[in-house]
Amino acid sequence: MTMFKKFTTIMLENYKKYRYCGINFRIYFFLKKEPYFMKKTGEETITPIKNMKIIQRNDFQNFTLDSVLLSDFVKINRKTKKILDIGTGCGIIALLLAQRSKAQITGVELQKTMAEIAERNVENNKFENQVKIINEDIKNYKNIFNRDEFDTIVTNPPYFEFTGDISQTNDLEQLANARHNINLSLEEIIKISSYLLKNMGSFSIVFRSERLVEVLALLQKYNLEPKRMKNCYTKWNENSKICLLEAIKDAKKGFSIEMPIFVYDENGQKNEYIENLYKS
């Protein structure tokens, strides 16, 4: 039994005692998620998705809906021969794209532990001949890849810009790096992608909607013309939180905003489209 399960069992067994001592814990809080004060122990978990089993660790960033949405958003055709996934993490985007295409896919991951997990996920799901994981800093791109090498580049970068305030980041270095642009800025990702993409190659990214203006400006700065965008609403009556965007290198102007994605409908029921993204 894990530490969390033991803790939950004790709390449920002694709920009345803790309640009357004035501790305002809610039972559903323990049943639904790990309390914020529980230590991350490095325990591995298995997440099923699309006939695959994905290994993750609880002390590293786990994949979430945004990566799954991006994998489905990316356009792939017969001309798509080589794909690069920048910041591949556990390899989820690379693996989902491998299911959709015959392209050769490379996932680059800075953190050694995550790169090793991604390699295991590739092997366990039988994609060794299609997906390659590289444990490397993408800032060394000129030493790793050739210019104009890829048809498609995808990335789910850290959502938050690092302002220099360490107190705003997670105590675990690996989680801080996954959530804030500490080691690699958004501008660096876009600049590198422009260098590595072939003419008319596509760049697809998922990011927080509040950074849209910043992303559009950077894309055009590095000759990546924004072509299509899709907003995702994680709550029915709230503004968009997630934005998916595709840009084409050296393309002509012309931009479309596609139909949005609503994760839940007005009755709180999960969208069938979202459900199908995970189903085998």
Please give a structural write-up.
With 280 residues, the chain is α/β, with parallel strands linked by helices. It has 11 helices and 11 strands. It has helices spanning 3-13, 15-20, 27-32, 65-73, 92-100, 112-124, 141-144, 173-179, 186-196, 212-221, 272-278; strands spanning 44-49, 52-57, 82-86, 104-109, 131-135, 150-155, 197-208, 224-233, 242-249, 256-257, 261-262. The protein is globular, with a radius of gyration of 20 Å.
Keywords:
two-stranded antiparallel sheet; 280 residues; 9-stranded mixed sheet; disordered N terminus; 11 helices; alpha/beta; single chain
Structural class: alpha/beta
- Catalogue the unreliable spans: 1-5, 14-38, 175-180
Average pLDDT rating: 85
Integer-rounded radius of gyration = 20 Å
Distance between the termini: 29 Å
In helices, the fraction of residues equals 25-40%
Note the main sheet: 9 strands, mixed
Work out the number of β strands.
11
Series of H and E elements: HHHEEHEHEHEHEHHEHEEEEH
- Helix segment count? 11
Tell the overall outline.
globular
